Structures are given as structure tokens and as C-alpha cells.
Amino acid sequence: MPRVLRSASLLGLGVLGIGLLSGCVANNPAATHTALTVDSSATDCAVSANEAPAGSIRFSVTNSGDQVTEFYLLAEDGLRIVGEAENIGPGLSRDLVVQLDAGSYFTACKPGMTGDGVGKAEFTATKTDAAATVDVDLAAQIVTANTNYGSYVSDQIDQLVTGTDAFAAAYPAGDDDTARSLYASTRVHWERVETIAESFGDLDPKLDLREADLEEGQNWTGWHAIEKDLWPQDAEAGFVAYTADQRAALTEQLVADTATLHEKVEGLTFTLSQQTNGAIGLLDEVATGKVTGEEEIWSHTDLWDFQANVDGAKVLYDGVRPILLKTDADLAASLDTEFGSLQALLDAQRVGDGFTLYTDLTPAEIRALADQVNALGEPLNQLTAALVL
Amino acid sequence: MSRSAKRTVKRDKRTGSADLAVPARGLSRRGLLGLAGASVAGIGLGAAGDRVALAASASPGAASASAVYPFYGSHQAGIVTPAQDRLHFAAFDVSAGTTRAELIELLQDWTIAAAAMTAGQDIGEYGAVSGPYDAPPEDTGEAQGLPTAGLTITFGFGPTLFETADGVDRFGIAARRPADLTPLPHFPGDDLDAGRSDGDLCIQACSNDPQVAVHAIRNLSRIAFGRAALRWSQLGFGRTSSTSTAQATPRNLFGFKDGTANIKAEQPDVVNDQVWVSSSDGPAWLAGGSYLVARRIRMTIETWDRTILSEQETVFGRTKGAGAPLSGGTEFSEPDFTIAGRENQPLIGAAAHMRLAHPMQNKGMKLLRRGYNFVDGNDDLGRLEAGLFFISFQRSPAQFTTVQLNLAKHDALNEYIRHVGSALFVVPAGAADGAYVGSALFA
């Protein structure tokens, strides 16, 4: 189903600020931060202090001008962006929370979002005993993680294309047994990178729309339209199996849309925030569609999708785990445990190459899976803050 | 024993026994109704408890507690009335075999009881504790000692009252059915539960005290036994709308102010244009009424709570703190949908809830929203059964349909919500003192 926004907005905005890392965990009541204000006017960028102790610093930026503005925290070279608050409408306030090492920085505002900006001023983070130190090697690891994830997405879509081609040979030819056997195992490649695939807004409904999400008069295409035809036993009374022509048309569209998807994911690049929030996005897919049995209401192969979403989230997590080990080893240990517990629950439902059908799960088994998704979700929530701040 | 015989027995209990106990008084509730055109000012005088008087000493100065809204008037109360804090909403189906005359009697009985309760009085001649010692009390009694707390009781008629799904005209009113009173269309993403949808009749009870609202629905349900039975009901613990400029905009369970630009009672021209059915709209009996849409919207708040703040604000198109549009200003600033930020993308995105719900995107159509937050325990997966019980009043159902179709197709919020219940009712005009709600329909 279209769960577009998280990934789409992240792809569009490009989250920066990955240069500085430390083990800052959200909701840590012991953490203290320095609170500063910034007044971004048409002509100035007035920060309430030009120095603060190194550590967590919150800049509350208020736009007192009449144009959209941005606030930048720049490194000592005056070029590299350490942190930014963007798209602040006139009269609005937005907070930028950063974790700063002792050193020299610059603050600046950019009303109108073009040009060199205004009010560029020096800012100093003063040395404290408590301030975290930063491992400069991490920057290289981040680049590696991002590159690796791009390759993973590309590889999964390659396999989706291959699987779809095999499916497309069986289904219109009336080889329903083969088509049914390929359905879940092919969709796995979609589900592993679902948040990325869904970020192409028009392709997602064409390929993955569920019947409940149709609007009146809308043409239903994609995997779930075919699913209903292959598993018609739960269909409404009077449901008529598709004709050969309908099957051919659906197949042709499926292959064409998958090819378009294949083109679009080539060369995609990612930021660290996109990776961490992508993992949360995949887990939310599990929480809203799979653990409730609503994704595959005809085939009941929800656990295949469940595993694939978890696979994708685990790949994203594994990609940043070496970085997390340096910034917050406790959080890494917690995530390792919770991923492991969720996998154990899924492994208990393995049957041959696949899984128990959703309709054969007991309420207690479903409840245990749902609880474990929440148990994993909470530490996963902290991942972005732990890596990016 | 036949059903009608049962009913006779029940009525004897409710009214006849009172007559027996105090024959000199003679005026049962039904007796009052029998006096066509006579004033019902006598209701509540005498033995029945008058909670207004009791409340005055209990909590002086509490405006929300002591508010009293008149039941009789040209429009029903509970629509442009400043939205109270609590809700109990109930939908009923008329019982099989109930006749037109019995339906009218039910509406008459409901009117009398609603007028009493909204005035802070117990129902019935003897109320909760002043009746015959050997009879069940007329009023259930849990509102004793509580103030009126701004109670309003609003009645509505569903499409099936006029004509069942099978096309049966049970009450001789099919020909008077408003042309617009047809079931709402299927919207993308609808996951409706028939047990939480539709109904022949509805009652919206709103109050600043939850027990006062529940007391109203409980007693009206009791009065209906044998003639109409509860189909579904919904509690709302906190209002999400403001319908008066004197009220601050409350927050929904996503933590956002939504519906800042709601229709307000202080905008009579907008209310007349967007809320009340005009005599020119037809049918004539509905003039001064409105259409009520109720939608039970489940929120997957656990997923929402894992969502980053920037996305939360992007979804709504507002800041989470002050509730200002992302285009700038303060909560009540008019949004600027053209102002763009980074990469020339609009600050209020194409899929932002606030953009899609705005009248500018919906042919100028507005809704008077009067929704409530609910949490009904938890589901089998250990998630809070939480959401928004959306209520809107509008001059035509097309206003809601236009907005909801736009939202159902495009709203970024759809990732976190699911519509699980739906109902449409027509709300007749208010009753004049001495008449009953809906009398014009049966005239």
C-alpha cells in the first residue's frame, strides 16, 4: 500500500549534518543541553550567545523576516555544513539540535534561501570535561554504508525484475500452480526495499495497491489484483475469474511498471538519515500491514512480506552498525537483541522455503509478533538521533 | 406475549404507576404531549430533582459546569453550540414491527426527556429518587448532584429510517426522503465495520461532564426499549474542534491542532451558507436542519510516535507547537500554499492534510467539524484502540464527500489513520416549545 511519505520526503529534502557524531540518546533525562536563540531577520542573524560549552546545543531559530529562511552552522572553514534548519516560514520557529565538539564554527542565516546569506558570525564551542570526542574515521564509514545500501536496493530490484519475468511466463499461460508458488517469493524483493519503491508515488499504487484502497472507478492493477485471481476462495460471492485477455493485460502492465521501477532506482544515493529512517519505515510497514494480515488478504502470505521488511530493516541497520558501535554501543546491543528476538519468532513459523499462512497463526502468536515489533521499534527510534546528532 | 403487549406493560410501569400513586396530578409525560400546542413548562416542576439548583451551590462560578443551552429553538442545539468537552454518541435501529405512530411517540418521549435533561432536571415526573418506593425510578440517577455542564442532545434520522436497504417504507416517509440522504460512497482506504456504521436514528449528547453525557444516552436508550435499540455508540473524551471564537483549538491524538479554520458560531453568514439546509434546498420539512456525518477514524498512534518531527509537521502542514501553517505566521494565519522553500518545493506540501482539507482545494466547501478524541481500551495486538470520532455538520453531504474524496486519495495522513465506521444522518430543525423534534417530517 502507498506508504509514501517518509521516504519520499527524506529523498526530497536531503538530511545533512552527518559530520558530527556522538552517543546522544533521545529521552535521556540526564542529558543537559545549552539553549540558544537565533533571530533571523531580513538583514541579520542574531544568536543569543557567541559561545557555549561543547556538547548538545539547541538553537531555537525564529524567522522575524518576511521571507522563508534557513539557519546554518558551519565548520571552521566556513564552508562545510555542520547543521542546518531549513524551510522556516515567516514568523515560525524551528529548533536545530547539534552535538558540537570544542572548536570554532560560524553561524549564518539565509533569508530568501539564495545568495550568501546574512549575519555570518563566529561561534565557539568551549572545551569541557564532559564533551564527547569524535572519531574522524567515521566519515569514511558513512560513505561506505550509504554506497552499500544503494547497491543493495539496486540488487533487490534486479531480482524483482527476474522474478517478475518468471511469474509473467506462468500466470497468463494459466499455469496457476507455478504462479502461486512464485507470488510470495518474488514479492519479497519488493518488500525488502518497500520504502524506496514506494517513494516513486505513481508506481506504488500501480504495483502494490490493495482492493480496499481503490477509489470508485479506479483501474486496479498490480500484484494484489492478480493475487485475488489466483486465490479466489475468499473473494466476494459472484467474483468471476479473469479472462485470458485480462490476465495478459495485467501481466503486461506489471512487467512494464517493474521495468520503470528498475530504471528509477539506478544510481540512487542515500544519506545516513534516510538509512536509519528507512529502517523505521520498513518496521512500520510490518506494524500497519503485515502483522495485521491486511497486506495479503487473499494469499495470506503476510509472513513472507513480514520477513522481507525485517530483512530490509536489518540490512539498513547492519550498514550503520559499525558506526553505532562507536557512538552508542549500548543502543547497538539493544538493537542486536531485539532484531534477534524478532527473527526467532519468525523462524518458528518457517515451513519449508516459506512460512505459516497468516490465517493459520494463533492469536497468541500474532500478539507475540506485534509486541516484538514494538519492542524493536523503540530502540530503532533512537538510531537517527544516536548517529546523526 | 406479543411485543405490543410487552410494550403496554412497560408503559404502565413508566407512567401508569405514577398516576396510581398520585392520581390527583394526572399529567404523565404522555399526558403532556397529548395537549396539542400546550406549554410544557411544567416539566420538572414538582417532585423531580432540579439539578440546576443543586449544582449552583455545588460548584459556583464554573462556567463550563453551569452552562445551560435551551433545547427548544429554530435549530437543534449541539451544532453551533460551543463544542463541549465530552461526547456520547449513539445510533439506533427502529425495532421490527414498530409503527409510524409508535415512532412518533418515541420522538415525542425523547423530546420531553431531552428538554428536561438539558435543563438540568431528572426525567419523568418523579425523577431518580422521588417516585413510588415500590417502583423502579424513572431516572437512572447517576447525574444527581451534577451540573448541566452544557448538555446538548441532538437527534438525527438515517437513510434507512426513510427506506430500508430492501426498499421498504416502514413509516410512510419514503417520499419525503431528502434526495441527498443516500449512503456515502466508498472512499479509498475505507475499512468499515457494519457494526460501527449507519443506523435509523442517532443521538449526539455533548456535555462538559462525561457522566452527564452518558446519563443522557442511557436514559434515552431506556426510553426507546421496545421501539428502537442501540446499534452502536461511541464515547469521546476530549473535543478536537472549536466552534466558537471564544474557544482555543484543542489537539487531536497526534498532538496537532487540526481544524483551526473551523466554522464558528460567530460567523452567521458562513453558518447559513454552509451548515443549515435552506428552505430552497428542499425538502421543505428539512429547512433549518443539517446533515451530520460521523466517521470513526482509528489512528495507529504507535506508528505515528515513531515518526520524526519533520515528517509529522509535513504531514499536517502545520507546526506541532503553535499550530501555525508551515508557510508562516501564527495559528490563525491564512496558509500560503504557493510559498516555496528548498528546491522550489511548497512549504505546505501537495499531500499535506491542511492543504487538502482547505476550502480552496474543495470548491470553497467548508464543514462544521465537531469531533472528539477516543481511546476504547486496546486491540488484540496491544495497541491503543485510539482515534478521532469525526463529526461534521453541513448543508449538503456533498460538502463532506468532496473534502473526504480529496483526503482519501492524497492525504499523507492516510498512512496513520483508517476509517472504520461511517454514518450519515439528517438532522431536522429544532423543535418549538411544545412540539417534538422531527414533527415537520410527520406533519
Quickly name the level 1 CATH class of the largest domain in chain A: Mainly Alpha
Query: What is the total number of structural domains of chain A?
Result: 2
CATH topology of the largest domain in chain A: A middle domain of Talin 1
Q: Outline the low-pLDDT stretches of chain B.
A: 1-48, 53-62
Q: Mind summarizing the main beta sheet of chain B? A: 6 strands, antiparallel
Average pLDDT score of chain A? 87
β-strand number of chain B: 10
**DSSP helix fraction of chain A:** 40-55%
Please state the overall shape of chain B, judged from the principal axes of the Cα atoms: globular
Work out the largest interface and the residue count of each chain. Answer: A-B, 43 and 47 residues
Rg of chain B over CA atoms, rounded to whole Å, is 23 Å
Strand order in space, largest sheet of chain A: 3-9-8-5-6
- Broad structural category of chain A: alpha+beta
The top level CATH class name of the domain at 48-118 and 147-298 and 425-442 in chain B: Alpha Beta
Helical proportion of chain B, percent range: 25-40%
The outline of chain A comes out as elongated
